[in-house]
Amino acid sequence: xxxxxxxxxxxxxxxxxxxxxxxxxxxxxxxxxxxxxxxxxxxxxxxxxxxxxxxxxxxxxxxxxxxxxxxxxxxxxxxxxxxxxxxxxxxxxxxxxxxxxxxxxxxxxxxxxxxxxxxxxxxxxxxxxxxxxxxxxxxxxxxxxxx
Length: 147
Prior knowledge:
With 147 residues, the chain is of the alpha/beta class. The protein has 4 helices and 6 strands. It has a domain at 75-146: CATH 3.100.10.10. It has helices at residues 40-43, 57-60, 94-99, 131-139; strands at residues 75-79, 91-92, 109-113, 123-126, 128-129, 143-146. The chain has a 3-stranded parallel beta sheet.
């Protein structure tokens, strides 16, 4: 015989019917219906998280404002004006930027931004380049490659 999901039942005696409260004294759950005598819990429900008037936990904990993506891509931002430390015809790579001291260490990907002017003809290899930066690099006679 095979076991089918529609044949599954709880073990005999493992489940109970619902507690029927307020059905007379002889039921054992009459009069106060298992709530004891007087007091807030006998009279009405308190909302979830209510701590008797004390500042509740969800309001005591400092708020983490906004949304932080776990997949956010971080970049080392380098403006075009900083690329003037290279000489004409040089190849600008993330490693070369570290060697020249433009960025301290290569922890994230490198993105070239378009602030400032470029006076050199360079070949730039970076992970991301803005349109304005690409236009300035190509306008100076260089080329852009996205890694």
